[in-house]
Specification:
- This protein is an alpha/beta fold.
- It has one domain (34-289): Collagenase (Catalytic Domain) (3-Layer(aba) Sandwich).
- Helix content is 58%, strand content 6%.
- The chain contains 13 helices and six strands.
- The strands form two sheets. The chain has a four-stranded mixed β-sheet with strand order 1-2-6-5. A two-stranded antiparallel ribbon has the order 3-4.
- Strand 5 and strand 6 (141-144) form a beta hairpin.
- The longest helix is centred in the first third of the chain and has 27 residues, at 2-28.
- The structure holds zinc ion.
- Zinc ion is lined by residues 168, 172, 223, 226.
């Protein structure tokens, strides 16, 4: 009898807990988000995003005005619909599909890629007047600016504005997940200049002879590491060779660091950067054949 009473008490307790949990769940939905969801009419692009981004990769692709949740110091304009569709197709084709192909499944992107891509129509500027191309917050979200101005058929511009940034931010997530060896930091250990990277080096012509693939690479070892990845995979072998020529006396430093980067990607992630670059360049060469407006 005692056991039965205890069992009934346990059941009641569990039932009460369920009631409390579901009540909390309902409280958790605040009125704002409910109103926004019901006012938003799902269009063909939203359905395409679910099919191409949300379901396979668990990535949200945000492009609407109401999604603007960036730094309020900037005066921002929403991305227009046509450009948003084009960018969504380009990110899928030039980035997600390429990593899928080199790793052999969608699992790699699904596990490690930032969970949100956020488009903004207008550019944003820092206090020192340099343009912000993209930002990443804690590896969760990538924001791409100036989308309304992008020439979608200009591969060089796409790389400079967006894809270099995307590979850069993604590579941060990778080294934060599996650290690279400390010998990387020793190669140009005393030459990192922190925030004064853009006053120390005005272009790669100045940074390369000091062993940095870009001015920004000179800010810190982690930035150096991911700049080597993002610039390598978005440069043709000819463009890369040109940079190595510019390096001159810094060539030994750049190649020593790149060797560590290359081996890290191969050994930690089973990604051959030469293969990744080959696939990036192959898809870049095909964007002229894509119908970027058709969902
Ligand atoms: Zn960075």
């Amino acid at each position: 009898m005692k056991t039965m009473i205890r069992n009934i008490t346990n059941i009641l307790f569990v039932a009460l807990m369920f009631a409390l949990i579901s009540a909390c769940g309902e409280d958790g939905l605040n009125a704002d988000s409910v109103i926004k969801e019901s006012q938003r009419e799902e269009n063909d692009f939203d359905r395409w995003i679910i099919q191409k981004y949300v379901t396979p990769y668990n990535i949200d692709f945000k492009y609407r005005m109401e999604d603007i949740e960036s730094d309020r110091d900037y005066n921002l304009v929403p991305a227009n619909y046509t450009k948003s569709v084009q960018m969504a197709k380009l990110v899928d084709f030039l980035c997600l599909q390429v990593y899928d192909e080199v790793t052999g499944s969608k699992e790699f992107i699904r596990s490690y890629f930032p969970k949100m891509i956020h488009l903004v129509g207008s550019p944003a500027y820092r206090n020192n007047n340099t343009m912000v191309l993209g930002t990443a917050e804690g590896g969760l979200k990538i924001t791409l600016y100036n989308v309304n101005a992008v020439k979608v058929t200009d591969v060089e511009e796409l790389n400079r504005f967006y894809f270099k940034t995307i590979h850069h931010e993604f590579a941060h997530i990778l080294h934060q997940t599996i650290p690279y060896t400390t010998d990387f930091k020793e190669i140009t250990g005393s030459s990192y200049v922190k925030d004064s990277w853009n006053t120390t080096y005005s272009s790669e012509n100045e940074s390369l002879p000091k062993g940095f693939i870009s001015p920004y690479a000179s800010s810190a070892p982690d930035e150096d590491f991911v700049e080597l990845i993002s610039i390598y995979v978005t440069s043709s072998p000819e463009v890369w060779a040109e940079k190595m020529k510019k390096a001159g006396e810094g060539l030994g430093l750049v190649t020593a660091k790149f060797e560590i980067v290359y081996n890290y990607m191969l050994n930690s992630w089973n990604i051959d950067l030469n293969k990744l670059r080959e696939l990036v360049l192959r898809n870049e060469s095909k964007i002229g054949n894509l119908d970027l407006d058709k969902l």
